[in-house]
Amino acid sequence: MDPITVTLVAKDYGHLAPLAVGDVRAEGLDLRVDRDTRRAIDRTLRDPEVMLGESSISRHVARLAAGDRTWVGIPVFLMRGFRHRCFFVRADSPLAGFHDLVGKRIGTDNWMASGNTWSRAAMREQGVEPSQMRWVCGPVDGPPQDRPQGNLPGNASMAPADRNLLDMLLSGDLDALMCPDPPRGFYTAGSPVRRLFPDFRAVEEAYFQRTRLWPGIHITVIRRTLFEQHPQVAPAIHDALEASRQAWLGSRLALHETPWLLDDLEASRAQMGAEWGANGIDANAAMVAAFCQESYAQGLIPEPVEPDALFAEYAEAAKQ
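Request: output the structure for the sequence above.
Response:
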């Protein structure tokens, strides 16, 4: 039987490299990787030609809550990340922690984005509720993103059409930013912006020790039309992507091209366990359950979504 040809549209993650260059192969598939860092999420969201792509876990949960079964989730977490690093203030700001944000004005790029959901979850873990501050949504330092914001709560509004959030922060119209990447000019000498938590690694390590969560932000999804025709594709993709991640990790342990990458890898293994970052349902059950709980608690979905629903059809296919 000829292999099934399918293309994965995803960002240019290092852990995809062994699969992209052919060092790892998917059983029964001619699996190609279209690494499109700038457009992968939007293409998966909008292009009906994309059969296998990268989706935010937030939008996957929202689709399930709305009864939209266009995509079938595969428990491969293409992007993960701690979020305390994603809060920024002016360099001269006295703000130094989540409790200092109570009553303040915070700008964020997209209300329902998975990363921002985890950022608000980190605040809630410390007893600070998003309802205790005012929010402004809009572009951080460039053109607006054409992505749905979701239903904004009563204490959130859109930024003026002629302003971006960085300018509003620097002019004093905002007190802080919550966004996935540092704003423009952050890495220049004398930057007017700093992180809320300058030693974000220590704060994030403490968060992990308390929660045992390494937040999953983006997952892999397969279009239902392909899944129903070839359900065996889903577990084959999972296995290939996990094998690619393992091969990537092994090469980094052997080569560790940056000065202290080896130390970082060994520290991650010591703190998070030998299987840190593993894909699959069981390895991520607690994290997925926490995200579903946060999505409902933060008002992103009208009714709770059971964690098992995210990958239920994949689980059935994997049993075959």
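The chain has two domains: 4-80+214-319, 84-211.
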